[in-house]
Amino acid sequence: MSTVTAKQLEVERIVDKLFKAIAQHRLPPGTRLIEAHIVESLQANRNHVQVALQRLAMQKVVTIEANRGAMVAQPTAKEARDIFSARRAVERAIVEAITPAIMRKNRQRIASHMNSERKATNDTDRRAIVRELSEFHLLLGEISGNTVLSDILANLMVRSSLIVALYQRGDVPSCASDEHQQIITALENGDNEQAVAVMLEHLDELEDQLALEQGAPEEFNLKQALSD
């Protein structure tokens, strides 16, 4: 059995910090990821930061260009459509795998999340809303028991957040808590067909909210984004 090294744990910490900052729209598409700033913000080793950025580049969350360095990816309109197509396939499989027994086993965890989600959507903290609504999809992936699908979805969710940051029309919510509750209710009742139907309609609506034209990256503060 392989042993996880201190270096691997540190790289994972940096990846996780960047992943979350991107997913929660604290680092918008096109943001330059200056190594020295990441090192300072996360009190990290420069070599570890470079490895973390390379890993994120392999996941299409970051792009690395010669003479320009690393930056948060800027998905094209075609990539946006492809990612939502992939999400339909992955999230359908996830929902189909969830049984009433799984729902009962995770009842407290699901209820806690839905409570946090409702609180967020009733407030005006955009970052909290994005975080909680995205967490719903990740939660379903985790409880499904299929770690491969869950890992794939985690990557697709971060890439979806980049798409929303670039293409979402105005302040239209990128997700709806009521639709999430409908999916939960159907799964609790063992009606996977209904849960799949609601999920696919939900994803169609999310894609319809996008104006698939190139957007301009927003202003950002790298150190502040990583300090949260």
Automatic annotation (TrEMBL):
Which InterPro entries did the record assign? GntR_C, TF_FadR/GntR_C, Tscrpt_reg_HTH_GntR, WH-like_DNA-bd_sf, WH_DNA-bd_sf
Q: Look up the domain of life of the source.
A: Bacteria
User: Which positions make up the signal peptide?
Assistant: none
Please state what the protein is called: GntR family transcriptional regulator
Q: Does the keyword Transcription regulation apply?
A: yes
Q: Name one Pfam family in it.
A: GntR
Alphabetic keyword roster: DNA-binding, Transcription, Transcription regulation
**HTH gntR-type domain ranges (all copies):** 8-75
Which Gene Ontology molecular function entries are recorded, alphabetically?
A: DNA binding; DNA-binding transcription factor activity
